[in-house]
Amino acid sequence: MQLMTSIAVDDDVAKELMRLAEREGKEPADLVRQLLARYAERQRYLAAIDEGLADIKAGRVVDGEEVEAFLDDWARSP
User: Fold this and answer.
1) DSSP-derived secondary structure letter, 30
2) Residue 63 and residue 78: Cα distance in Å, rounded?
């Protein structure tokens, strides 16, 4: 799926975008697509961290000794 949109940015942001695009050897639109993809990836990462913290808070954790025992059993299995 593709979404086409336009946004208004301040002159200083536009100049910085142009400078960065030139430095990277990319078109400004390509750089914006890359930045948006990285932003979305970071948001997914932060959401996963929040989910893990919620699990900890709710007590959905496994004791380290249990993990070690599981790994020992797993390493010995054929």
Assistant:
1) H
2) 25
SS3 47: helix
- Judge whether 18 and 28 are in contact, CB under 8 Å: yes
Say which residues have a Cβ less than 8 Å from residue 24's Cβ, sequence separation at least 6.
Answer: 31
Other Cβ atoms closer than 10 A to 20: 13
Question: pLDDT in tens for each of the 78 residues of the chain?
Answer: 888 889 999 999 999 999 999 999 999 999 999 999 999 999 999 999 999 999 999 999 999 999 999 999 999 988
Instruction: Give me 44's structure tokens.
Output: 């997914």
Q: How far is CA 43 from CA 33, 37, 47, in A?
A: 15, 10, 6
Do the beta carbons of residue 24 and residue 31 sit within 8 Å?
A: yes
